[in-house]
Design a protein that fits this description.
Distance between the termini: 45 Å
Radius of gyration: 18 Å
Strand content: under 5%
Order of helices and strands: HHH
Length: about 90
């Protein structure tokens, strides 16, 4: 498929931080933006919540107190070399 160019405007600090993030996870900005566009097209919506205000972190089950505690325990065990199988938490 032929390639095309998209030009966007952003402030220099945001671009720098985004470029650094992309580099840390092994990609460049172009790859990340292409991933964003494809995820949006595949899902038929933006791949994140958009709202007028900052939603309470507890609105998202991933950030629930129980799940965050579970993740912290799993990270501690992994860092100690005590890896365990992943377990899914039941829906509330």
């Amino acid at each position: 498929m032929p390639q095309t160019t998209i030009t966007i405007r952003t402030d220099a600090g945001t671009k720098k931080r985004f470029d650094e993030f992309c580099s840390e996870v092994g990609m460049n900005t172009s790859v990340a933006i292409n991933m964003f566009m494809k995820a949006t097209i595949n899902a038929g919506e933006l791949p994140f919540r958009v709202s007028r205000g900052r939603p309470a972190i507890d609105d998202d089950k991933f950030f629930s107190g129980a799940n965050l505690a579970h993740l912290k325990r799993a990270i501690t065990e992994a860092e100690a070399g005590k890896l365990t199988e992943h377990e899914l938490l039941p829906d509330d």
